[in-house]
From TrEMBL:
SMART domains: 35EXOc, HRDC. This is Ribonuclease D. It comes from the Bacteria. Residues 1-30, 311-333 are annotated as: Disordered. One of its GO terms (biological process) is nucleobase-containing compound metabolic process. It holds the Pfam family DNA_pol_A_exo1. Residues 233-313 form the HRDC domain. PROSITE patterns: HRDC (PS50967). Coiled coil: none annotated. GO terms for molecular function: 3'-5' exonuclease activity; nucleic acid binding; nucleotide binding. InterPro entries: 3'-5'_exonuclease_dom, Exo_C, HRDC-like_sf, HRDC_dom, HRDC_dom_sf, RNase_D-like, RNaseH-like_sf, RNaseH_sf.
Amino acid sequence: MNAPSAEPAEPTGSNPVPLTEPAEGVPPVVSDPETLRQVAAALAGADGPIAVDTERASGYRYSQRAYLVQLRREGAGTVLIDPVALNGRLDPLVDALSGAEWVLHAASQDLPCLAELGLRPGTLFDTELAGRLAGFERVALGTLVERLLGYRLEKGHGAADWSRRPLPADWLNYAALDVELLIPLRHVLERELRNQGKLDWALEEFEAVRLAPAPRPRQEPWRRTSGIHRVRTPRQLAAVRALWEARNAIARERDIAPGRVLPDSALMEAATVNPRTHGELLALPVFRGRAQRRLASTWLAALRLASQLPKDQLPDPAPAHEGPPPVNRWSDKDPDAAARLAKARAALGEIAQRHNLPVENLLLPDLVRRTCWQPPADTSPTGVAEVLRAGGARAWQVALTSEVLSTALRATA
């Protein structure tokens, strides 16, 4: 099979061509420094953008590190790199990839683990984001490749445990296919965006993704435990917190996904039942297993700690909410704010429809809510534009939305 080109393999709407393996075959995994230097030199000597992808082990490991890095560049072919075998030392790639445009699909998912390896793009093209801005309703990689290039990718291992060694051959085949068509897809999407007059918008969005700061750690992350909405008393919430923190410490130390140490359902049951002895704990369904029996003392110690906390150290059942209240409460709390938001949403929806955009890509919903809940003193288009820019809106978003938001902010119930 010849390498796929930027042109669709079949006319739109016809049967896609199955692509079950890379055109040039699956390359051997790079796992030693000398081979890394060789492939880095080949990548540096080639031309054009570089397709980039990673495979992690979410759901299996505590960390979000990359367990495989896939690269492809015209003239150098596909490269599969094992950063674990290389102890995370990918220094030759830093220079090889410097200044080049990277092409990723859903880049925000991969950039943090690449940055951990010292790899950062000079410029970026995100094919998922490009697809959204171009107005495609479904923007999964396989869907876009099928629609725009006429190929159907072999899929099926995205949720696998990529920390496993050695990696199975069919997994490596899957990983290589993920970068096989990223460059052709990038070219087709660029052409589509240019034809729609949105390429400059997309470039602003890509740059915002590239420069986005690392997300701030969540405050009280234990409150996201599945099923916690059924807990009402401060003492039971303290038990959830203590068990969550004990589980998190074990997961971090062992580099295991927390849910594999103790599932949320079992954590919630223990917090609710509050067993006092080993026998009572081991009588609960999940805790009967060998692994949980070994950790029984840890869970009981966490429960004991929660039961002995003074009242002033118990968590608040209704913690302070950062930002506006839930929208369904606006009509009661502030009817004028509800009217502003309704008018803003309607106006933004019309703009998004006119430009064939998802409304959430036109302007972040959270920024819209915050602005409508607490409008600036200056609600003129100029004043609103300043608020939007301060909230991270890009120039094209501000140009499209500041005037209609200005009008909405002067609405009352």
